[in-house]
Amino acid sequence: MKRTLIVIHRYTSAALCLLFAVWFVSGVAMAYFRTPVLTEDQRLAFAAPFAAAPGTRSPEQIPQLADSWTSTDTLRLARWRDRLLYRWRTSNTGWHSAWADTGAPPNFDGASLASEAERWFGPGTGVRYDGAFTEHSQWSYFAQAREHYPLHRFSTLGPAPRQVFFSSRTGEPIVATSFGSRVLYYLGPGLHYFSFYPIRNNNRLWRGLVNWSSGIGAFTCLVGLIVGLWQLRWRAIGTGRRVVPYAKFWMRWHHWLGLVFGLLTFTFVLSGLFSMNPAGIFPSTEIPSPMKAGYLGEQPPLSTLPSPEGVPADLGRAATVKELEWSRLHGQAYVVARETATTQSILWPHGNVLAARPPFSESELVGLVRGVLPAPIGAVERLSQFDDYYYARKDRILPLPVVRLRLQDDRGSWYYMDPGTGQLFLRSDEGTRLRRWLYNGLHSFDMQSLLRSGWWWDVTIWMLSLCGFALSTTGVVVAWQWIRRSVVPVMTFPAVSRTTESPLNEGEAS
Q: 251 to each of 10, 260, 481, how far by Cα in Å?
């Protein structure tokens, strides 16, 4: 049995140890950069301040919007240069837009977007137009960008250009890169989970690569731990004799590092597998469709939506509101004035006028959601700061404060509601909370105690990654030594020497 395990560990380690070393290095890079896709805060920061304009049409007066209203899930009104623009997203065709003063669709091409690109890079920066891009580009294949295809790319001049991709459908920046961010992406997500567009565009291939490499990798670590403990000379402990049976430098250190950091490496690789949710073993955090439909209510007729003419006259004076977004609760349409991704205010209709209203109270939210919940409410909590189960890092954005509803059901369900908009937006149960620890906890160490400690989280990530890298590097060296010693000679054909001592001359040999 021990011999079999050693052979298994030797071959799988030879195949994967270099990948392990790459994973630990790229994991550190991913701790500081994930994706060049702009966040909601970055998108809104670039947007022009909203300003009401005379002659703005109501949503029902936009022909294209009227034709696709039944499949529209998002409707916004924002300013593009000096004109107001409706933008809406449909579930099957992505984003669309139309001018709010004429109802005509805009034409966002290289010429019309050039001034926006100059505004993005800053005045006086030389800019060139690079053409239109779809999924066949490393920096435009992302899922968040597909609903805006084609994208128009602009670059600064010089050997290390900055780049920005604008949507041909909404006129907004979608992806932005610099030389440093491109390098970080290649070193981080690119190497960590094969995030290169020829692979990511083939979802079956990509998932197979990640699942099989991490699955076999976790098995390799587990076998290595068993072999390492089995090979240890337990009776030599405390006697001064060699505890590890290997005398050669690299093999001895690989054994010692495996004993100390093998469990860390195993949990790191296994949690990477859990990030892919193989076979759907963990439930989703999305609100179930029937519950979401019951809470939002039926899509109201387009003619009943609050008109932008009812927006308070002083809304645009603060120069902080960037767009209006229509929403609904139990079929009642209202408007959300958005400043940032998490700074929003409600404009509730009162006849033909939209008036600001305070955030929803806990009792109001409970009253709104009680009829669609699958079980009675056991507790209502108001969170004013993140905890270990509700938190946001980097490009992930979640509102605060939130109201958490704990249900009295067998699955320990929790539901989260945003008082600022009244929306029911997140669910959690025992399965999702288990995945939180088996994936995020073991892979990112994103416990609040570490995240709030400042640089201690960085120290932890760097130290653990260096330990895993050291173990993987010794495995690479040992594997190469074994391949050079055992495999290469077998694959090399010995040269035929001609000597006078041969019992056959050329005539006999032929």
A: 12, 14, 10
